[in-house]
Amino acid sequence: MSQLVSSTDIREWSGAPRMKGLTALGAVILLLPLVLPNAFYYDVVIRIAVNAIIAIGLNLLIGYTGQISLGHAGFLGIGAYGSAILTSRYGISSLPALCVTAAAVALLAWIVARPILRLKGHSLAMATLGLGIIVSIVLTNEAQLTGGPDGLSVDGFAIGRVAISGEKNWYWIFSAVLFLSVVLAQNLIDSPAGRAIQALHGSEIAASVVGVDVKSYKTSIFVLSAVFTSIVGSLYGHYSGFINPGVANFATSVELVTIVVVGGMASIWGSVIGAVLLGVLPQLLAGHEGWDTVIFGLVLGLSIIFMPRGIVPTLQGWFRERAR
Amino acid sequence: MMMLKVSDLTKVFGGVRAVDGVSFAVHQGTVQAVIGPNGAGKTTLFNLITGLYTPTAGSIEFLGAEISGLAANLLAARGMSRTFQNLQICMNLSALDNVLVGAHLQLNGSVLAGLFRWPGLAQTDRRLRARAADLMAFVGCGAYVRADAASMPYGALKRLEIARALMSEPKILFLDEPAAGLNHTETHEIEELVRQLADRGLTVVLVEHDMKMVMSVSDRILVLNYGRKLAEGAPVEVRNNRDVIAAYLGEEMVDG
Amino acid sequence: MLLQFVFSGCTLGAAYILAALGFSMIYNASGVINLAQGEFIMIGGMSAAALSALGIALPMAIVAGVVIAALIGAAVERLAIAPTRKADTTSIIIITISVSMVLRGLTEIILGKENHSLPPFSGDQPIDFQGASILPQSLWVFALSAIIVVALAFFFGKTRFGKSMLATSHNRLAAQLVGVDVRKVMMSSFALSAAIGAVGGVALAPITTVAYDTGVMLGLKGFVAATLGGLGSGLGAVFGGLFLGLCEAFTAGYISSSYKDAVPFVLVFLVLTLRPQGIFGVKSADRV
Fold it and tell me: What is the rounded CA–CA span in Å between residue A185 and residue A181?
């Protein structure tokens, strides 16, 4: 064993700190139903969970790997509509429909990833933005299949023969998916693959010369984040019972990026906190036309100016400074 | 044994022949220096050999196999490692993680394995982390073992890059201006380091401007000028070569 | 019918040229992709429309609309861009998105959600030409675009301030060293881009009406046009704008009117994958 590293270091490398975070999350999930007064609040919490799960996947792409995507709502839309159409039109049961849709999204993401991940900066932003808008336009126009701008109603969800309905049951489903997402994302970041993607964010050249296949990792993370988003989109469609093309539009993509940026780039907990903040904010602004856009914009802008790394990493930095 | 054989290597950028028909060979266990005035094509040569540029013409043989045009990450798998003239450090990672990423190919880098926490990953990680810490001490930046790369001074970062390059236990190490921007003491320490590596049998190819270091540490020197080979040989021969002296005439270079 | 599509394509194209020029100018001066450019266009049109509705004479309303947009452009540069110049590309893109949200939201609050319109500058009788008709307002759009393109060429080629702007875009430090007031250049580039965009917004308003969210698509399409032609290239902006306008018009006419909005994004996807620097752009290389 090396003389330079202590047993504290070893323990830290084994992931002791992350257990604290997971325990806290688990506690919140278990205790929250005791304080939520009615179905409306469950709905808010569920929406927050949905955003958090997508944000975690998106953060892997934007924060950790450093590839911006301004079109992720497109995957959300495909996930929601894919499941909806397969279940209501073709009578396929919901769980297989979700899997098939996720597989289709994975394939689509893989196909578009290869050409666009060669791009950087604003070109990548533009390309992803374009893809998202194209999806949104297709969903709006193919009214035969998707119900067009008026939207589509979605059948209920069932695991095997057990039908899931009602906010309280969905709460447990989404909480479980959120918990799982956090665990999986943490696993990935702590692994050699996680290190490789962060390295390629820091310097693609350095990563290549040590053997990292940069293109392959960028593609994998892009596909992974697309699949996360699709799965959640499918579940959300079933939960909400009704979807419209707005779920895939540019504004939604911007909202998702806002959560990642404000909560904390390259921070899984940042995405959770960001989702909470930006899920609670509209509730406070409900009904004030135009103000929600202004406030969102201000929160996003001021956050990037004063806390460029996002809330959670900035706070973590402060605590570390104090500890010295 | 011949480790590296470069034949008629040429790279043309637009109208500029950055490297023009260069041929040389590097034998195992030797230290080969590549020197020349600024703009002579040294870094381009490195970039061609290590897979960052594709040659316009010519061939590169490494351990008997043709490698020209192969991507950099594939060459890492064959035993090549390098450092950079303009530091390529991942400032978003800790110092230790920077070094650890050098061992990427020795670990299971699959995304799925990472997601599902494949058994053994953590254990191998810990072992390699300890080794990374040792390497950092060996190259002389052990004080920063718990630091973030972003907080390290320039000299320490240069060494960090060397530690990262050594992590993969390479067969050949390319050092691009390892002493650039360092003071006398630091340069001497790098010189010592290169000598230690050579003593251990590592094949080293280095680009350097510090002639004192080059003369003292190299077995052979290749001199480039305007992309072409000007001279090649043992330090003593190159030093007395008229063409080499002419090329450097007027430049403050030899300091004894 | 072909001629009709050409006319509508050129009208759209002229507006896109102005939007694209705005993008390219800011990109040239500062390397920033200003995703709030669309809002500058919208503000020009909305201000003019609002003032005109209040009874102010049309020419004054038009000028006021452009001036207001220019002032807001300058303010955006001072408040949101200058303090964050050193941030990375992703962050700056996000900042401009946030600016666009603030501007859009404020317009919604102040002027409401409805469509606003401006009276045509010189009458609304369509002019018949070879079986197709064209609105006089469209001719205004062409004319104003052409004038601005020529004026910009003169500005950057012959005037001192224009040249100092170009110098700043090539090498900020060097420009500072030769005495260029870089801060003034930056602020002016934003003000000028906003003004150019606003002219487009004002000229289009009589034809398409404006609302608080008109800027979103217009801005994005302007960006696409600039990218198609090559970001930073004036010639590219003209080419990109015209090409995009024509493609949209032909798609709407011959294929499907509801998919015309997808055209810019399909085009930009193709351009970015096949020739990322655009038609007239220059490939950039990284030094290792």
Answer: 6
